[in-house]
Write a structure and sequence with these properties.
Strand content: 35-45%
Helix content: 10-25%
Number of helices: 4
CATH class of the largest domain: Alpha Beta
Number of domains: 2
Oligomer: single chain
Largest sheet: 18 strands, mixed
CATH architecture of the largest domain: Roll
CATH superfamily of the largest domain: Diaminopimelate Epimerase, Chain A, domain 1
Distance between the termini: 7 Å
Structural class: alpha+beta
CATH topology of the largest domain: Diaminopimelate Epimerase, Chain A, domain 1
């Protein structure tokens, strides 16, 4: 099988074309191809399929075989892939996912670098739609979750996938790698959740580390960066344009309440090749 490996700020993906939707076992394929010692290695796989409702369709499977509804770094990689190969021969396109349709645009930034800006759509703030268990409310802000007797204050936002946002004074390995996986599977989150630990550096700059649902800690998470900024603005901590620093690099996130979230960042091709199945 032919493949291309790409990454967005170190969040890496294996891209596979299956335009005619041939019967492939995507979950099994993801588990096998994403193993970093026995195969190519990646955080997930991106599937290129034809769409009846948009220019193209992207499906995303995490390294554990679960299907993700949306992926911010993945959508930038996907857009670069289909544009560079003339599959979608226009700089601004529509991409269907299983949860939403988004509109990435290939642009040149102020440094002359090719980056991708994505209209990520409006954030979902209603409790039942994120989803978070409990009585309906909107937005979900300053709620409590208990892990091993320790209480954490969180907000919740969906960017096509659920996020639990926790603002802290310092981000530690213990929080990300021990608390993060326990929050991911907490009963408060019926579809599990991504978990972001956020340190506010200024009103225009935050640091974020992410425990991703179905993938573990990753170098970056585009939807997580978007959700972090949305939560920070709702809490009154941030202005409407914010630099989000992740372990793999920086994203530029812009949001005006009631409007779409816009994410801008790089996407890079690593290699192409063939893998034996």
């Amino acid at each position: 099988m032919k493949f291309t490996k790409m990454h967005g700020l170190g969040n890496d993906f294996i891209v596979i074309e299956n335009p005619d939707k041939q019967p492939l076992n995507y979950p099994e394929l993801a588990v096998n191809l994403c193993h970093r010692r026995f195969s190519i290695g990646a955080d997930g796989i991106l599937i290129v399929e034809d769409s009846d409702n948009a220019d193209i369709m992207m499906r995303i499977f995490n390294s554990d075989g679960s299907e993700a509804k949306m992926c911010g770094n993945g959508i930038r990689c996907f857009a670069r892939y289909v544009f560079d190969r003339n599959i979608v021969p226009k700089t601004k396109m529509t991409v269907e996912t299983i949860s939403v349709t988004v509109s990435p645009e290939i642009i040149t930034d102020e440094n002359g670098e090719t980056v991708v800006t994505v209209d990520m759509g409006k954030p979902i703030l209603k409790k039942s739609l994120i989803p978070v268990a409990g009585e309906e409310e909107e937005p979900v802000k300053d709620k409590k979750v208990e892990i091993d007797g320790e209480e954490f204050t969180f907000s919740a936002v969906s960017m096509g996938n659920p996020h639990c946002l926790i603002f802290v004074d310092e981000i530690t390995d213990r929080l990300v790698r021990e608390v993060g996986p326990k929050i991911e599977v907490h009963p408060l989150f019926p579809e599990k959740t991504n978990v972001e630990f956020i340190k506010v550096l200024s009103r225009n700059h935050i640091q974020v580390r992410v425990w991703e649902r179905g993938a573990g800690e990753t170098m970056a998470c585009g939807t997580g960066a978007c959700a972090s900024v949305v939560a920070g603005i709702i809490k009154g901590l941030l202005d409407n344009r914010v630099k989000v620093s992740l372990p793999g690099g920086d994203l530029d996130i812009t949001w005006t309440q009631g409007e779409s979230v816009f994410m801008t960042g790089p996407a890079a091709e690593v290699c192409t090749g063939e893998v034996l199945l």
